[in-house]
């Protein structure tokens, strides 16, 4: 399948894609619900055209206008912004943002300091597992802790995933609220100058952290083997730097350096050294009570771009937009299915529009599934919105 | 608000009515004062409250104390005493509901002064943010010093009625409450169920158990609910006050007084530079006159030919502030970035940001360089190397770096010790002295201030005497410049 992407073909292919394959109807319904009580036309869309020309403050009032706009401009990339108190336009600097989905952006480049298989723009099946973990942890937190229901998961097109929460409460959350949700989810903190980026203290572990650890545990050994986190001396060094206790650190160093390379074996040895050490030093090891958990989290826990979540009007790539570099479709997927996703089975515009492409059939099937996934979320959102509006109406009668 | 200003005081309200108006030391300032006061008293009350709010900011930034810690509160109350503001010291020390004349007068002043400052601080978004952040700190500090009975009364007076969850409900989730609530004796506590957005400060610190969108809080966590309400109410009334400014500002004396109030303390925001600095000199400036946060970014850029967004913003605005022109800035970034990427990509993706920093793109705002407070509170993630090195570097890495710069062991030891205690800006000041072989003990609160102080020495405006005269770090220049801080008002 690989190879025949040619960005120069996009201008020809995109109009066909937008007409035949882009789920315009569901897309408009999703945005309409997500904009209510404001009309769809108050929502900002933005297009990136060929040659990176960037058009902001576009808007549509219905599916027909969307169709026309897509045909006329043929955007290489489609982004979605906030809902304003008026129709968005360039001149209106007084426009106020009234609502916006609560969004999360997880990108594999933020894992560059832990992943060993790829760097920067590259992705492979091995490092995709980081996304699987991220998706599962965030999805559970949003549902169980915050009670959100309308959650859409989207492949970002290259090396990450996006999450859109459309519940009314999430949409209208103010910026301190978004900040708090982001911080609640954010356990890895610190820049390139901090080796240990997770600090869990020594008191009880919060229920949400325990749940995250249970999820990580399902994948941890596999990841250890895939990524070989501790197999070279550089990598081992990173682990050692996370151990604040000097005695333990030198014990670990001595033992692990003289072992075979296998990260899994090294990890097991580390665990038993750690257990012995804490048992013997009793209360003195309070400081490192959660060291094992901290390491697991630093290596596997979701790394969010918190600024995207905190910001109210950060534009984010739309579901089913095409990634101009890879040609891949930003498909909607079910969080429960994230672990079965294969990167080269994600539909690309090239194979979708070319009957003779070897994976044409499979990409078409997967595209249909993606649209179905999208529909499911939108239908339940529509239901929830209807109930909310009914309740609102009842409320106002009572008063 | 209905404040009439008279040249002379006309009436002294009866104590009886004061008891009704001011039953408690702690107020939520829901109703504006209605009484006549003299211009003199107006001015005094305003200035005194600004002093109070400033002492809160100083405790956190210049003294580096942890907010709401005992030392922090002690410092603030000590400051109030030295400044002769006994009534505030009294109100802050332990909030109660006593009714002596002194109590009542203190509350009256507190009440009026708060409303005067609303007028002074409702003018711009930045002023509002600063004011709301300080008033909230004050509120929380005072709530924290309240004792048992006073708390009960406060709740009653403010109609805070929530029903606790049933024992069955509690026993079902007791396991989670124990895990997720940082209080001892969970068993004997009543728990209340509130929406998660009513207690955002607890949510962001993960100090509360959340389930299905609800937060389960203990009685003492109600301060979070209250301060969230107080914040919302305050923000709204500031917005309203702003619209009505015109009506109040008939009186010119008032206008200048109110406008001048914050200005006298706000100092320089460094958004425009005094001199032009050629970029050819940046390498040597980085060594001699940049604070460590900027030196680090400069060196990183030279080595990696790239900086991530946070670094570009922090360093780019700093450069603007010291006097690098837009044209030079573009050239500087272009030269580095294009060592790794082609020119076209730079022009498309990065040049915009450089122009944006100079107010030439987007909302065309003339952005101010970041203050220390903003830098210290900034979020630094993997791959980033901005922020304040005293806060965002491992001590080992910091030490290596300082050794690499060739400082002597004693200076390094001092810097490291202070850093470990969490006094970031004081450590920065030590670094300044180490670089300049001085012993000035400056109060550093802005990287651009650091630069200017360093330039003064370079130009010989300030003579450096190597003498031990100054003991601790005296506050040489107060710059309340954290106005554009986005997250600061959310800091617990
Ligand atoms: S204290 Fe301020 S000037 Fe000094 S390094 Fe930190 S942020 Fe920079
Ligand atoms: Zn990989």
From TrEMBL, chain A:
One of its GO terms (biological process) is DNA replication, synthesis of primer. Keywords: DNA replication, DNA-directed RNA polymerase, Metal-binding, Nucleotidyltransferase, Primosome, Transcription, Transferase, Zinc. InterPro entries: DNA_primase_S, DNA_primase_ssu_euk/arc. The keyword Transcription applies. Its EC number is 2.7.7.-. It comes from the Eukaryota. It holds the Pfam family DNA_primase_S. GO terms for cellular component: alpha DNA polymerase:primase complex. GO terms for molecular function: DNA-directed RNA polymerase activity; metal ion binding. PANTHER family: DNA PRIMASE SMALL SUBUNIT. Belongs to the eukaryotic-type primase small subunit family. This is DNA primase. It comes from Mythimna separata (Oriental armyworm).
TrEMBL record, chain B:
It comes from the Eukaryota. Binds 1 [4Fe-4S] cluster. Keywords: 4Fe-4S, DNA replication, DNA-binding, Iron, Iron-sulfur, Metal-binding, Primosome. [4Fe-4S] cluster binds at residues 293, 372, 388, 428. GO terms for cellular component: alpha DNA polymerase:primase complex. Its cofactor is [4Fe-4S] cluster. Residues 286-451 form the DNA primase large subunit C-terminal domain. GO terms for molecular function: 4 iron, 4 sulfur cluster binding; DNA binding; metal ion binding. GO terms for biological process: DNA replication initiation; DNA replication, synthesis of primer. The keyword Iron applies. InterPro entries: DNA_primase_C, DNA_primase_lsu_euk, DNA_primase_lsu_euk/arc. PANTHER family: DNA PRIMASE LARGE SUBUNIT. Belongs to the eukaryotic-type primase large subunit family. DNA primase is the polymerase that synthesizes small RNA primers for the Okazaki fragments made during discontinuous DNA replication. This is DNA primase large subunit. It comes from Mythimna separata (Oriental armyworm).
């Amino acid at each position: 399948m690989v190879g025949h992407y040619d960005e120069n073909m996009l201008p020809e292919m995109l109009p066909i894609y937008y007409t035949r394959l882009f789920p315009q109807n569901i897309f408009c319904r999703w945005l309409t619900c997500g904009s209510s009580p404001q009309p769809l036309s108050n929502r900002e869309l933005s297009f990136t055209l060929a040659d990176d020309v960037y058009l902001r403050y576009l808007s549509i009032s219905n599916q027909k206008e969307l169709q026309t706009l897509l045909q006329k401009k043929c955007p290489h990339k489609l982004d979605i912004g906030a809902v304003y108190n008026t129709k968005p336009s360039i001149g209106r600097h007084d426009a106020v943002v009234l609502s916006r989905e609560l969004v999360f952006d997880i990108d594999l480049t933020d894992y560059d300091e832990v992943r060993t298989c790829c760097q920067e723009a590259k992705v492979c099946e091995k490092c995709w597992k980081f996304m699987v973990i991220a998706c599962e942890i965030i999805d559970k937190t949003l549902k169980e802790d915050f009670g959100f229901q309308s959650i859409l998961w989207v492949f970002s097109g290259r090396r990450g995933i996006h999450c859109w929460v459309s519940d009314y409460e999430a949409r209208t959350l103010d910026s301190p609220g978004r900040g708090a949700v982001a911080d609640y989810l954010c356990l890895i903190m610190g820049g390139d100058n901090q080796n240990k980026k997770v600090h869990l203290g020594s008191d009880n572990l919060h229920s949400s952290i325990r749940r995250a650890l249970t999820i990580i545990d399902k994948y941890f050994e596999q990841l250890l083997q895939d990524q070989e986190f501790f197999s070279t001396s550089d990598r081992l060094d990173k682990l050692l730097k996370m151990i604040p206790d000097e005695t333990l650190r030198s014990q670990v160093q001595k033992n692990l350096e003289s072992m075979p390379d296998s990260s899994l074996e090294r990890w097991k040895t580390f665990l038993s050294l750690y257990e012995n050490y804490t048992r013997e030093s009793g209360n003195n090891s309070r400081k490192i009570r959660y060291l094992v958990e901290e390491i697991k989290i630093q290596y596997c826990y979701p790394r969010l771009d918190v600024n995207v979540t905190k910001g109210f009007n950060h534009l984010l790539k739309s579901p089913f937009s095409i990634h101009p570099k890879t040609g891949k479709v930003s498909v909607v997927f079910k969080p429960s299915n994230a672990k079965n996703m294969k990167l080269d089975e994600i539909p690309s515009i090239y194979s979708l529009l070319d009957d003779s492409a070897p994976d044409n059939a499979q990409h078409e099937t997967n595209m249909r599934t993606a649209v179905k996934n999208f529909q499911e979320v939108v239908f339940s959102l529509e239901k929830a919105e209807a109930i909310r509006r009914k309740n609102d109406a009842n409320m106002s009668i009572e008063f | 608000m209905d404040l009439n200003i008279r040249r002379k005081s006309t009436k002294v309200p009866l104590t009886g009515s004061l008891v009704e108006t001011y039953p408690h030391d702690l107020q939520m300032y829901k109703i504006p004062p209605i009484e006549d006061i003299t211009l003199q008293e107006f001015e005094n009350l305003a200035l005194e409250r600004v002093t109070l709010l400033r002492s809160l900011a100083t405790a956190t930034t210049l003294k580096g104390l942890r907010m709401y810690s005992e030392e922090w509160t002690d410092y603030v109350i000590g400051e109030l005493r030295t400044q002769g503001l006994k009534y505030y010291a009294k109100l802050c020390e332990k909030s109660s509901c006593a009714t002596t004349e002194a109590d009542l007068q203190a509350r009256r002043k507190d009440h009026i002064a708060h409303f005067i400052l609303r007028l002074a601080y409702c003018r711009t978004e930045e002023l509002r943010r600063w004011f709301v952040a300080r008033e909230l700190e004050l509120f929380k500090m005072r709530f924290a010093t309240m004792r048992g009975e006073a708390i009960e009364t406060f709740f009653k007076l403010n109609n805070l009625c929530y029903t606790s969850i049933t024992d069955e409900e509690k026993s079902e989730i007791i396991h989670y409450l124990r895990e997720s609530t940082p209080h001892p004796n969970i068993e004997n506590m009543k728990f209340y169920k509130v929406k998660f957005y009513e207690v955002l400060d607890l949510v962001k610190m993960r100090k509360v158990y959340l389930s299905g969108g609800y937060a389960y809080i203990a009685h003492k966590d109600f301060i979070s609910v209250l301060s969230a309400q107080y914040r919302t109410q305050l923000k709204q009334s500031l917005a309203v006050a702003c619209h009505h400014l015109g009506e109040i500002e008939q009186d010119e004396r008032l206008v200048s007084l109110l406008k001048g109030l914050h200005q006298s303390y706000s100092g320089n925001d460094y958004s425009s530079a005094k001199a032009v600095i050629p970029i050819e000199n940046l390498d040597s400036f980085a060594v001699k006159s940049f604070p460590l946060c900027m030196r680090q970014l400069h060196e990183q850029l030279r080595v990696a030919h790239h900086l991530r967004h946070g670094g570009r913003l922090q360093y780019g605005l700093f450069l603007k502030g010291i006097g690098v022109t837009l044209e030079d800035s573009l050239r500087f970034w272009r030269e580095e970035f294009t060592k790794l990427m082609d020119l076209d990509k730079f022009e498309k993706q990065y040049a915009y940001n450089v122009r944006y920093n100079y107010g030439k793109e987007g909302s065309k705002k003339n952005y101010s360089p970041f203050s220390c407070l903003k830098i210290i509170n900034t979020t630094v993630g993997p791959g980033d190397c901005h922020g304040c090195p005293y806060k965002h570097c491992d001590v080992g890495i910091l030490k290596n770096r300082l050794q690499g710069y060739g400082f002597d062991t004693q200076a390094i030891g001092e810097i490291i010790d202070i850093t470990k205690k969490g006094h970031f800006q004081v450590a920065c000041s030590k670094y300044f002295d180490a670089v300049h072989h001085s012993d000035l003990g400056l109060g550093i609160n802005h990287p651009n201030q650091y630069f200017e102080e360093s330039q003064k020495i370079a130009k010989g405006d300030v003579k450096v005497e190597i003498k031990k005269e100054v003991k601790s770090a005296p506050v040489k220049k107060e710059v309340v410049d954290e106005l554009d801080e986005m997250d600061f008002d959310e800091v617990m």
